[in-house]
Design goal:
The protein contains seven helices and no strands. It starts with a helix and ends in a 7-residue tail after the last helix. This is Polyribonucleotide nucleotidyltransferase.
């Protein structure tokens, strides 16, 4: 019985160690290989939490993320579209055409968003949100 509890304890320790080590490498594997850039505050905070609970795994997490480059934000990537260009997606009845919107976003940002996903949540905005972007309701 004593050997079985040691094996279980060892397995739990290894599982916790892998969960706390190198958050950026685990969550953002596509960022590996970068050598510089702005540090992602979310990844740095997750690694710092590892230091708060267990010093050695937290330091290992920082070391691995810096060594792999996963702690850095992607270089020169942005996903912004000017509000004026998005007006093309608004129909005469004031509703947004998802097909047009998808094509505009793909053309401007290079990202193909799954706007036809049945699990996509759509919420209506209000006039204050439009005013914050300097837009006026056209419909």
């Amino acid at each position: 019985m004593r050997i079985a509890s040691r094996w279980i304890g060892g397995a739990v320790a290894v599982a916790l160690l892998t969960q706390l080590t190198a958050c950026g490498t685990l969550f953002y594997p596509d960022r590996r290989g970068q050598i510089e850039g702005k540090i992602d505050p979310a990844v740095a905070a997750m690694d710092a939490i590892g230091i708060l609970f267990y010093v050695i795994p937290g330091l290992i997490a920082f070391a691995v993320d810096f060594a792999t480059g996963a702690i850095y934000l992607p270089a020169d990537q942005h996903a912004q579209v000017a509000p004026e260009k998005l007006r093309e997606a608004i129909g005469a009845d004031g509703k947004v055409d998802p097909i047009r919107l998808k094509s505009i976003i793909a053309r401007e940002t290079g990202h193909d968003l799954p706007l036809d996903n049945p699990q996509l949540l759509q919420r209506s905005g209000n006039l204050q949100q439009l005013a914050a972007f300097g837009l006026h309701p056209a419909a």
